[in-house]
Amino acid sequence: MRIGLLTEGGHPYVSGDAGLWCDRLVRGLAQHEFELYALGRTEHQGSQAGQSGQSGQGSQGSQGSQGSQGRVALPPQVTRVRTAPSWTAEDDRVVYGRRARRRFAECYGELVAALCEGPGTETAREASAPQADRFANALYGLADLARDEGGLGGALRSEQAVRALERACRAPGALRTAREARVADLLTVTAHLEHALRPLSLDWYEDDALGAVDLCHATSGGPAALPGLLARHFCEVPLVVTEYGVRLRNHYLGGGPGEGAVPGGPAGGCAGAGGSAGGRAGAGDGGGVEAGSRGDAGTGVGPGAVGGVRGAVGRGAVGRGAVAGPAASAAAVTPAVRALLAAFHGRLAAEVYRQATRITPGNAHARRWQERCGADRAKIRTVHPGMDATPFAEVGEGPDTADPGTLVWVGRIEPAKDLVSLLHAFAEVRKEQPGTRLRVIGAPAGPEGEAYLGHCRVLAAQLFPDEADGLHSVGDNPVSFEEIGGPEVPTPADAYGAGAVTVLSSVVEGFPTGLVEAMFCGRATVSTDVGAVVEVIGGTGLVVPPRNPRALAEACVALLRDPERRARLGAAARARALELFTVEQNVAAFHGIYLEVVSQCPVRRVVLDESGEPLPFAVPAEAHVAGRWTGLSSRFATRRGPGWAAGPPVRGMTPGPSIAASEGAAR
């Protein structure tokens, strides 16, 4: 079958996040053909995307030319790569006429009115059907307008868009927080909506692009799922949506558009989901919330914003690429901005879940968020991330050579990992086990991580003064801070193998990738009950409440004093990880989902002969069986119907006098 893989800021870019599991998926399903449709998230990726047309269309290339464009080397089953930059707005040079401006005003006005009517966190069951349909109809109306006119970029940045948002916020019955929106808030939200709706202007939805695939697979929600949503709308292509981090949750954790909530910024923000050894993003191994990319730099307020909307939304008020990102001031993230963006993400997620054929969260934690956003349980299939167990096989299967009195923490150093509680817990451990050591192995995550690491070093020096064995020996601190790649810890496997117990002390997690790596190494673990930790650990480790140093210390002491229990838990943890979290199980699960979707929702193509007439029985029954088939020489018609039925619909007519008389005579 032919699969359209939709990504945002990840595969096939070299610098992208969450690209490793996509690459493993593509390579593991060599019997299928893949077409990659990628939205570049950063300026570097935007430069890799190549030249774009006036309608916002992305560049198109084959896997043979990717090395020079900054992409990873792709296998031969990838037959097409199309990219589009989303970090900045392209000048589509489209000038709307009066009728097109009226259509835009109606559709965009309905869209923002749906955002102002109610909170974005309510589920689809709680929301009224007319309200949900109002957002969906407006979204598809904008997509139809972009298809007819050649783009939406200029209209979404226009004064007309800001005025429509202002009217929706001031309308009776609008959210109280929306009514409090100031001029700067209106401009920030308008810029964010322009950024999020850029995929509507792409030319990916024709019969020679996404219209020719058997299914679309979006690797995340938000803008990455929008092309699949429109392929479903225009061409009736089934959609599979995979989420290892729910966008609405990321918005709440990120604190608004300045902290990774914008579609172009890091999806994880401060969520800190599943950082694995050596500071790798958790999503890189197929799990967790994406982290590590820069947000979209830009401004939220243009010239003359102080004088009100009429003075602010003149030329350049909503500038090209103007999205509230890390460069924006913290004051821009007001309650009004947060409420409106949460409403947008909630409405978009509900529509994506409603139209998706299958939804595949990476864990039960993400699944609960999806159900809260309106996903139908019957569509959900949990697919755990797949990780490569080979690098950890030697430590996991070999003899245990770890120091029995050493605790190990491995991951990205940032406040969400709560190393402060770990240090206080280790102080309690030292009271019970005086010879115990703690090795903190990992790299800081950005400037915030650097500052947090410095704070932890100072705290460790205060809690644990250097100790010496005698009067003439040099003192040593029982807590060490190290990074992977040095002579003592050259690889992640060596990091986990350095201690008898692996500790996770996070207060926020998505999918704990580092914990799975410790399980691959056969290590007993002590973890906090956050995110998907309990789902991953099962009964193979000890779990304690977060921010509870005393409970964390008691669990560590219990394992340090019982080597037989450590061995049993470690063996059970490795067996569980090999059963549930390998690349093989991940690829096999998606293969089964692909076959299920294609068998239940086959794409009905109408084949035309050389003269343009429908060709009966042109598609054999075997075409719906997975595999490579000889391509037909005939061309395909649109999925809306055969070519001879493409005319305007027949309208009902009022019966004339002669027809009414004849009907009366017949009776």
Q: Can you describe what's shown?
A:
- The structure is a single chain.
- With 667 residues, the protein is of the alpha/beta class.
- It is built from 23 helices and 15 strands.
- Strand 8, helix 15 and strand 9 form a beta-alpha-beta unit.
- The longest helix is centred in the N-terminal third of the chain and has 21 residues.
- 54% of the residues are buried.
A few lines on this structure:
With 667 residues, the chain is of the alpha/beta class. The protein has helices at residues 19-28, 43-48, 98-117, 129-149, 153-156, 159-170, 176-179, 183-196, 226-235, 247-254, 309-312, 335-355, 364-372, 393-397, 419-432, 446-463, 492-497, 513-520, 533-537, 549-560, 563-580, 583-600, 657-666, and strands spanning 2-8, 33-40, 59-61, 78-85, 215-218, 239-243, 358-361, 403-410, 437-441, 479-482, 499-504, 524-528, 542-544, 607-608, 635-636. Helix content is 39%, strand content 11%.
